[in-house]
Each structure stands twice: as C-alpha cells, then as structure tokens.
Amino acid sequence: GKPICECYSCYGGNDCSLLLATCPADVEGGDPLFLEPFWIQNAANSAVVVAGWHRMSYFFPNQSYISKELEKNIRKIHAIAKNAITDGRYIVFGVGSTQLLNAAVHALSMESSSSSPFTTKVVANKIPYYSPYKFQTEFFQTLHYEFEGDSSMLKNKSDFGGNVIEFVTSPNNPDGNLRNSVLKGPNVKTIYDRAYYWPHYTAIPAPADEDLMIFSISKLTGHAGSRVGWAIVKDVNVYKRMMDFIDVAEMGTSKDGQLRALTLLKVVAQGDDKQLFNFAHQILSHRWEKLSRIFSLSKRFSLQRIPTQYCTFLDRIREPSPAYAWVKCKRKEDKNCTEIFRVAKIIGRPGSKFFAENRYVRLSLLKGQHDFEMLISQMKKLVSQEGGVG
Ligand code: PMP
Question: Which GO terms describe its molecular function (predicted)?
Fold first, then answer.
C-alpha cells in the first residue's frame, strides 16, 4: 500500500521497515544517522513539545538572538568532552556551522580592509579539503576577499601581498587526520573548523584553544536537520562582526532550533555524562575495525592512515574512529575509483570533490546501520574478486 511516511532510500512497505534487496550501499553523504539509536533509547527525555504561544518573539530576553541556557550548556559539553576552551570566549550561533564559515570570512576580512589596499586571500589548509570553503567564498565574494585555492602557493612566501585567511579542518574531512595551520605570520588569520573534534571521531590530545573555532550540533548529536552551529571566538571585534553578519543575513537563528538543541544537550550532559560520547565512539571504532580488516586483505585498495594517539577524554591511547574512509585505488589503471565502487554497488564521493585525484573516493561511516552493513557486504565481495587478478 501507500507508505504512511516518506521512507529513506532502500526502505519501502507500509511503515518503511521493508529492506529493498536491490539497493546499493549509499555512503556518499555525511548524514550522521548512526546516532539515531541513541536518541531512540532516549526518546522520552529528548522530546520537545512547544505550545503554540511559546517563543514567538524574534528575541530571547534582553533583545538577544541567543539562548543563554543553550550557551551555558554548550560550554558545559565542551568541558565534558575536554575538546575546547570556552572560558572568556564569545559564542556566536549560526544556521548550521555552514553559515558561520562565511560569517567568519566576512569578520576576519573586515579586520584588515580599512588599512590595507589588498583583497584578503582565503585559502584552504591542504588538499584534500572540504569543498564549501571554496564554493561559499566564491559565491559570496566581495571586494574584501577572494578564494585562492589551497595554501601551497603561499606556503614558502614571506610576503603574502596582503592578508590571508586559512581554513583548517581538524580532524579533516575527508581523511580524519588532525591538522594544523600551514601559514604563519602577522597577516594570517585562521578559521579552525572543528566539526569533527569530538571523542566520537578522534583522539582529543588537548582542548582546542584557537582564536576562532567552529562547531556544530550536526556531528555532535547527529541532528543535522536542526541547523544549529556555533563559533567560539576570542576577539571581541571579530565576535561583533560575526554577530552583525547573522543580524543582517538572518535576524538571528531559529528559536525552535535552539530550544531543540538545548533539550538534546541537556540529555547529553545529564547523569553519566559520557554516555553519548561512549556510544558514538564505540560504533565508529567498531566500524573502522571491521572495514580495516577487509582492506587489509586487499592489494588493490587502501585506507588512509591515522596514527593511534593519546586521548584525554578516554584517558588512554586509542585507535582511530574517523567519520569517513578515504580510499585509494592503487592500480595504475584504476583512475576512477568512484566508478569502480559504483559498479560494485557502493556509492561514494569522488576525490575530485575534495580537489584530489579521482583515484580516491570517500565513503561515509556515519550513516545508519543498514547502509554500513551494505557497505561491508559489498566491500567483501569487491575484495574477494581480486583473487588471482591483483
Ligand atoms: N564543516 C565540515 C568539515 C563538515 O564536514 C560539515 C558537514 N558535512 C560542516 C562543516 C557543516 O555542517 P553543518 O552546517 O551541518 O553544521
């Protein structure tokens, strides 16, 4: 019959519980549905009911766009995860962290433009990198800034010909490695995209303490659809310019989104306050282990290397548990890795979307259990086909 709800791809039937056998493993996107079972376990205490009259205003009390309660809980979660220093820092909310990427570019490029005749150059740390840095910066380009690719062209220069903003993604999307800025000097500002700097995805060697760091609820609780992100900012003027950006672009972010985020973070922080982190870390480290074992049997494909590291959150050395597998097709003739995987019924994101060669493909490990299981079973088939050939 007609489904009662919209089913995710690969599911059908009346209540979307029927697995469609013909389906490929869709591991293209970064939808963090692996966290869904945690919220099913916590369904009652994470539910949000909002009466029709509630929070109708553009503002929270004191003409603020920001829920002070949510801000307080964000600081608390960072203290629990030991992943960022928030004392004495300002917090700006955005529509996802996506909006804050450009808010940060705007704020940092205005820093210098009154005194400098040059347009600020915006660069990404290193290839492979997350593509919105380029597409957003180009899309919104103003007289104050322009995108210049990755930092390799500027790396060995002593004079950058003006100011530079460098995006550093740490851990990196797609390869999960912790990264540091490449460019240094008085003319360089850095935006640290810390979307994946949670115990789910990486060792936390020390709390992050950069001037401008961007986080998101999408990769923390899995609620990408709520579109709630935040920036932690040291400098008051940068903070004010980012707030101006949000004011001009949006008149503040959704109060409903903030209310939902608050409810979720309260669940994360309550009782055994490591519960969500342990849950997420366990799933992803298990997935990585399983996938690594299959790749260890392959001569044709390889996975990225991520060093084991001491984690202050777990208080021990830990194995990797990245959000994505960054796969290399090693045979000379395998120039289009995504296509090889597509034929094997695994849909990944091509290396070129990260400005790398197409002999790389990114596979998401964040999706629901079904897609992961499909990935494992198709991957086993693909690797077993190598026998004798490879
Ligand atoms: N930064 C990185 C590195 C990401 O991978 C993502 C999401 N895939 C984002 C930012 C944006 O996330 P959101 O807008 O949902 O907060």
Answer: carbon-sulfur lyase activity; transaminase activity
- Is 176 touching ligand 1 by the criterion CB < 6 Å? no
Is the pLDDT at 251 greater than 90? The verdict is: yes
Alpha carbon nearest to ligand 1 atom 7, residue:
30
Residues 147-178: b if buried by 16+ CB within 10 A, e if exposed: bbebbeebeeeeebeebbbbbbbbbbbbbbbb
Question: Which pTM does this prediction carry?
Answer: 0.94
Q: Which stretch of 28-37, 111-120, 214-223, 356-365 has the lowest confidence by average pLDDT? A: 111-120
Measure the CA–CA gap between 69 and 66, rounded to whole angstroms.
Answer: 9
Q: What are phi and psi of 64, to 5 degrees?
A: -95, 140
Average pLDDT over residues 337-343: 97
Average pLDDT of the chain is 93
Higher pLDDT, 155 or 338: 338
Provide CB contacts within 8 A for 233, sequence distance 6+: 89, 90, 91, 92, 211, 212, 239, 242
**Which ligand 1 atom is nearest residue 172's CA?**
3
